Every structure is written in structure tokens, then in C-alpha cells.
Amino acid sequence: MSRRFTLIVAGDPAQRTGGYIYDARIVSALRDQGWEIDVVGLAGVFPDADAEAAAALAQALETLPDHAAVVIDGLAMGALPDMVAQHTTRLDITALLHHPLGDELGLDEADQQRFHRSELTALASVARIIVTSHFTARRLPELAAHYAIPINASVTVVEPGVAQAPVSPEAEAGETLRLLCVATLTPRKGQDVLVQALAGVAGNHWQCDCYGGARDAAFTQRVQQLIDQNGLQSSVCLRGECDSETLEAAYQHAHALVLPSWYEGYGMVVTEALAHGLPVITTTGGALGDTLPEGAGISVEPGDVAALQDALSQFCNDAELRQQLRHGAAQARGQLSDWQAASEAFAAALTAQNHAANDSLTLRAGSQFESDWLTLREAADFASRSQRLATFAAEWLSPLSSAPVIADLGCGRGSNMRFLAPRFCAHQRWELIDHDALLLAQARQCAAGLSDSQGQPVAVETHCVSLEPITDVPLGDAHLVTASALLDLVSQQWIEALVGRCAERQQALLIALSVTGEWHFIDAQGEPVLDDEDHWLLAMFIAHQQRDKGLGDALGGQAQEVLVATLEKADYRIEQDDTPWQLAAGNHDQQPLMMALLEGWAEAATEQAPDAAARIASWLEQRQQAVANGELGIWVGHRDLFAIPPFAKPQEEA
């Protein structure tokens, strides 16, 4: 794809709602990078498109030349699948989805199903899909399975960035606490719930200002009536829609953001508030459970007036709690990524090539790691990784007089860096190396705000190159070479070449989470559960592990032993720790990862033994049911390794 596309949105592109602001910010950042982007606003009624809307979309698509790239916002395309399908063979169409149309609050069952089916039909025909939250990425396959309308396009998460902002001052003793709600006045945003909750908050030492356009006249009238009925005219004010300067002033004078939404596809105002160092009181509706970091605010169930009232009362009447939440918001502020990083991820999603057709630049299709899988496994990785070996690596780097350089092979979304950087010394520079431009862009996005052990920012460079041959990978100035969950994909020749390069430069290695090839189920007490069918399927999985994944004949679970032997020949000193995943039976937080593991094992076994597909499917169904019932957990063998060359200190750059 060239660095040019057309963005099509419903109505006026300058509207000040989360989705339109997301679109505008991405466009602005990409234009700063040299992209040429035409933005087209469609006339007519959306999302329940009328004739004028259909004609407007038809005209916008028909005027584009063959093979032109076009991004269609979900609000503009969800109700017009036939229109989209007419142009999918002629145009390169990307769908930009903020949240499923059928999930909007207030729809009856028939309309909800109609919107879901229509949108899924449109999505089934596009080249790719970009969503703005991991929640929506999880929601789409659920809907596709429910309605039996498969989605074949890749789904990429590009979360919103946030603009840098000054920290809002904390409340002084005796000062009126100012609560800020930024949301359009529509039922989904829940301002009626907020007013009812505020009616039960004691005292007159707080003020709540609600900014947002009155998109639903009847709902706006209901909210104002609730304000009047509860005598809150002097405490709660509906300020309406405002410009960016007025909103920034509101953030600067606020002490907390309140967002009572029933459902959000992301909740950009949450990160905007955190950028100002403001605690957030919100719900768990939709993606909000993912958007608000732990410790930076209070979350309650959507629509629960009593719970929201209690949260607001605690905030307004407990100065120590306010201080704790403000500290949590400050920590979260340091981890926010900017719009530049978001736009790079967006560009990578648009320009990502078909990996299976481009093996010379990527690993083969069998080794493609979906962004969602990498996100899903991160918590288990962090819990099992060796703290001891990470400390050894930090001690290896600490004598350097120059900034330490760490090369991360097959970095994916940057999980390895996020684990290690806070444990390493100051002024680190990370060289993130991966074959997948999209994952690299997401890694850079996730690195924004990452700090080292002394609170200093971490410098990041990305290199989109194949890991084969290893001699072409830029490792020359690294003091430490690291990788996570990579080793089972590589060959003995690849390992020998890597160790040879590292030994020549006196580079240390920290290789984490290398699979041992062993896994088994565990019961509620953590004891192994042995079964002949499991042993049979494990044998199929081990055989599949040793297929060529693009880096030679893969070693699978034998890779760690080969690496140790090769390092010993080069006189490296080696430390190892066992770092298994121990996913507990009945742990609901870990069940999605366990389900993904089961599906992956079954898929690998089926590829290895296609004639046994029915037997494998039966095994999968039984194990999934046992995991879902809390009867079985999963143990997966991993091992971490740290190795240093014969010299005790890392070699300084020449």
C-alpha cells in the first residue's frame, strides 16, 4: 500500500466525540509523517442508514480509482454491507471499528440482532479490520460465532494515544472538590445514573460539571429533570459541548473524572484524565475494565447507583483515598502512549503484507503470533519468569560507563522489554527486532512512558528484519542479547550462529520462557492428572513443534539443551531456572489463556495427524469443558537462562 488513503466517516468529521477525535488524531499524526489522507464526511442518517446515507457512501466509493486504499469508519459502513461488498474486489478496504453497532444501549432485541448481522456481513468482505480496544477484538469473534458469520480479515488493535498534558493541581484543604464528566448526553453514557448517585453524596463540598453535546433531547431532558428533582441545581451543571480550550481548562480545574457509561469501546476520556494526573471513577462497562489501570481510580458495575454513590462518597470524604488514587493516576500517566505511537501502529496495520505470501521476510504462517495471543499470555509470563536471572542481567549491565544496549530478538509486542526495563539501570537503549512491522509498531506504542529502575525514560529503536540468517540481524553494539518464548522455533544451526556472534562480541544472553516440550493437566490441588489421550496428543504436539517454522528445522523442547551445550563450548558461564506456567483450575482470569492453549495444541495435532481429526476434536471438547468447569488447570514447562562470556564485565563499545 502506498502512503495514501481515503478515510470515510459518517457526518461531519469535526464532531467532538471519542470516535471522531480518534480518527482526527490518527489522521493528523499520519499527515505529520508524510501520509496523504483525504477525509470524506457522508451526508444522511447513520448508523441506521437512510437512502441519502447509502447514496453518499456509494458516491464516495465509486469516485475512488481502482486499487485505492480506503478506511471506512464502522459507523458509516455497518448498516450498508451490500455497498461495501460491491467494491471489495476493486478497492483495498479497511474497516475501523470503535465498538459493535449492535452493542449500543437502548436497542431492542430485533434491532440489536439486525445491526450485529449487518455489521458482521460488512466486516466479512473487507481486507482488514482495525479496532480501538482489546475488548472489541475479543467481542468480534464472539459475535461472529454467535451469528455464524465468519470474519476472515485480520483484526488489529490500535488503542488511542493521548496528548501530553500538564498535571492538574490537587485539591487544597477546604477547597470544593470538582468532579468532571466528559461524555455526550446519550443513554449509554449514564449521566442519569450519575445524577441519582450524586443525590446521595452528603455535603456541599463538591461540584460536578458535565461537558458533552446533547445528542438525545429526551435523555438530556430526563437528566435535567433529575437534577431539578434532587435539588442539585447548584451542584451539577450540564455545560454542553465545548471547544478544546474550554475542555482543557475544565481538566485543569478538576480533581477527578467521572464516567458512568454502561458501555465503552475504549473510553478515551479516561486516558485523557490520567494524562492530567486525575483519578477516575467509572464503570466496568465494555472496554472500561481494560482502560482504567489498577490503583488509578475506582470502578463499579454499570448502572449500579448505590455502588457509584458509595465510590463518589468515599472519594469526596476520604482525603487519604484521594491521595492514594492520585498517586496511582500519576503512575499510570507515566505509562501512557502518545498519538505518534498510535499512528505508527495504525500505519503498520494498513501496510502489513500477507505473511504467507512473503516468507522471505517473515516467519512462515505456522509461526505467526497474533497480537491478542501475545497480550493474553503476558500475565502468565510475568508471573513465572525468573527474577533471579533478571537480577543477574541487571548486575552484568550496571558497571557500564555508557548507556547499556539490549537487543531483543523476536520482540513481538515488547513484553520482554516491559518486564526487564524497570529492573535494569538508567539510560537503557533497546533494539527491538522482529519480522512483523505491525508488532514492532505496537511494541513502540507500548514502550511510550516506560521507565528504568531509576525512573528515567527508555530509548527504543525498531528493526523490521527476518531473524534468518542471524548474521544479518543488527546485534553489533548490544551488551545483552535477549529473547522470550523464541527458542523452540529455531534450529541447531541458528543457535550455533547466534552464540558465535555473541561470543565474538563478548555479549551476555538472557533467554526466557523457552518451552521444554512438557505440559500436563493439574487438578484443583495442583497435582498432575495423567491420561493416555493427553500423552498421545502431547506426542503429536511435540512432533509438530519440530517442523520448520522459517528458521530451519525447529528444535522445539530440545532447544534449551542445545543452547546450553553450545554456550558451554564457548566457555560461557550459565545459570538456569525452571519457570513453568501453573494455570490453576477454577482461575477465571487464566481460563482464556488455557482455552487458547487447548485450541493451539489441538490445531497443531490436527496438522500433524489429519486422519485423527475426529479423535482430536473429541479430546479438545472434553478438556475445554473440564477447564470451563474448574476441574482442570494446566502446567506448561519453561526454562530461563542467563549466560555471560569468560570475561566478568560487558565489553564497552569500541
UniProtKB/TrEMBL annotation:
User: In the Enzyme Commission scheme, what number(s) does this protein have?
Assistant: 2.4.-.-
Q: Which spans are transmembrane here?
A: none
Q: Which Gene3D superfamilies is this protein grouped with?
A: Glycogen Phosphorylase B, Vaccinia Virus protein VP39
Checking CDD domains in the record gives: GT4_PimA-like
Alphabetically sorted, this entry's keywords are: Glycosyltransferase, Transferase
Q: What class of enzyme is it?
A: transferase
Q: Could you cite one Gene Ontology molecular function of this protein?
A: glycosyltransferase activity
**Does this UniProt record's set of keywords contain Glycosyltransferase?**
yes
Glycosyl transferase family domain mapped to chain residues: 174-329
One of its GO biological process terms is: carbohydrate derivative metabolic process
Please state what the protein is called.
Glycosyltransferase
Which organism does this record belong to?
Vreelandella sp. SM1641
